[in-house]
Write a structure and sequence with these properties.
By secondary structure, this protein is an alpha/beta fold. The protein has two domains: 4-147, Rossmann fold (3-Layer(aba) Sandwich); 153-384, no CATH class. The protein contains 18 helices and eleven strands. The longest helix has 17 residues, at 125-141. It is globular, with a radius of gyration of 20 Å. The structure holds NADPH dihydro-nicotinamide-adenine-dinucleotide phosphate and magnesium ion (MG). The site of NADPH dihydro-nicotinamide-adenine-dinucleotide phosphate has 30 residues, from helix 1, strand 2 and helix 10.
């Protein structure tokens, strides 16, 4: 059997590295085509020496010489910068992992949808900002989109073999992050270090802070609406501190199916790699007797304002790109120490109310260039909002 060609965009990130961990056991079955990194040139060099992809791209030009020197006696074609990265995403392959973080991964995801037979999608921002476009590209090119986000992988798994019309609603689980039991008052003085201390998952910096503010869950709610063609009222968010039940699907006959596993992204990645078959992955099954009990309760939307604000987006999905761009700027400003943790929600809310942005959205973003333009405009506005 011929080897499957695979791309991994965002190779050096948390998802990228978990993807390599899964693939490490099956190297002989795959041809590695493109790897990419932005700043972590040392990790990219290591991965290139081990997996020998055909192409490797480093986003930041200043690391290119180091990459070139380290890999000069290999056959790997090396490049730097965004244009070369976009070109790589146009390579015809069997499977692409889209795991660049944030809006930077959106256009890559769209190109992978056009040129890969299967798109394993970790970059949730692609659905939030350009969901309609992404899904229409997948339809046009007959690309299979398999979600990697653990909640969406769970729903996808629960829906496999079911009739779509039997689905009533879905329940997205959320760990509640490190501030689940904090008072609103105490959350007023959250530090960056505290926000980075996720109780259950080890992930990249940005998604870890988004999980602490529950902006991550708001993005996931929109992601789910696009992926599974749901109305806002069909998606419920529930806190489940143990992160064992990754989400649930409620059917019209009163049945609820859930997918359970210990929190480890290798599970959803492996599922996306070998769907519909399951791979042998070194993850223990859930030990129910040891866990004893699983808890579920409703989130406090006063503390996690993002869950309230997202309703506006849920009622008009075209607002997704504004929501995400404002959230990205809010996050940058929190990380730099310029605004407080709870200010992030206020910044997003104020940005979403900007009439000039709303006017742009009313024209209905159709193409990636429209989405890039609205993203840029929103960022400019969100950067200027004063506290
Ligand atoms: P990381 O921050 O760990 O990794 C991000 C990757 O993107 C790195 O390879 C990084 O390169 C690269 N990158 C960053 N900026 C750019 C840019 N401007 N251009 C090109 N490449 C860039 O993120 P995660 O792996 O945690 O997350 C990746 C995506 O997957 C996100 O969209 C996230 O929401 C989603 N996701 C992640 C989960 C997780 O468990 N981590 C779970 C579910 C979804 P470098 O490091 O070399 O600078
Ligand atoms: Mg998730």
């Amino acid at each position: 059997m011929s080897k499957k060609k695979v791309n991994i965009f965002g190779t050096t990130g948390s998802i990228g590295q978990s993807t390599l961990q899964v693939l490490r056991g099956y190297k002989g079955k795959y041809d590695f085509i493109a790897f990419s990194a932005h700043d972590n040139v040392d990790q990219l060099i290591k991965d290139c020496l081990e997996f020998k992809p055909q192409y490797a791209n480093i986003g930041n030009e200043k690391h290119f010489l180091k990459l070139k020197n380290a890999l000069h006696d290999t056959d790997i074609s090396l490049s730097y910068g965004r244009d070369a990265l976009l070109d790589l995403a146009c390579t015809k392959v069997d499977w692409s992992m889209s795991a660049i973080v944030g809006f930077s991964g959106v256009e890559i995801s769209l190109l992978c949808a056009e040129h890969s037979q299967i798109l394993a999608l970790a970059n949730k921002e692609a659905l939030v900002c350009a969901g309609k476009l992404l899904l229409s590209i997948c339809k046009t090119y007959n690309t299979e989109l398999i979600p990697v986000d653990s909640e969406h992988s769970a729903i996808f798994q629960c829906l496999t073999g079911e009739r779509r019309k039997d689905l009533k609603s879905i329940t997205l689980t959320a760990s509640g992050g490190p501030f689940r039991n904090w008072s609103l008052k105490r959350m007023g003085s959250v530090t960056l270090k505290e926000a980075l201390n996720h109780p259950n998952w080890r992930m990249g910096t940005r998604i870890t802070i988004d999980s602490a503010s529950m902006f991550n869950k708001s993005l996931e709610l929109i992601e789910a609406m696009h992926l599974f063609e749901l109305e806002f009222s069909d998606v419920e968010v529930i806190i489940h501190p143990q992160s064992i039940v990754h989400s649930m699907v409620n059917f019209k006959d009163g049945t609820t199916l859930a997918q359970l596993s210990v929190p480890d992204m290798k599970g959803p990645i492996g599922y996306a790699l070998n769907y519909p078959k399951r791979l042998n992955i070194d993850i223990e099954n859930v030990n129910f007797a040891k866990i004893g009990s699983l808890e579920f309760y409703m989130p406090d939307k006063e503390k996690f304002r993002s869950l309230e604000i997202v309703e506006k987006v849920g009622r008009n999905l075209d607002l997704g790109v504004i929501f995400n761009a404002a959230k990205e700027i809010a996050l940058d400003r929190f990380i730099s120490g310029e605004i407080a943790f709870l200010d992030m929600a206020e910044l997003v809310e104020k940005t979403l109310a900007e009439s000039s942005l709303i006017n742009k959205i009313l024209k209905k973003p159709q193409k990636i260039s429209d989405i890039i333009e609205i993203n840029e405009l929103t960022r400019g506005i969100a950067e200027k909002i004063k506290f």
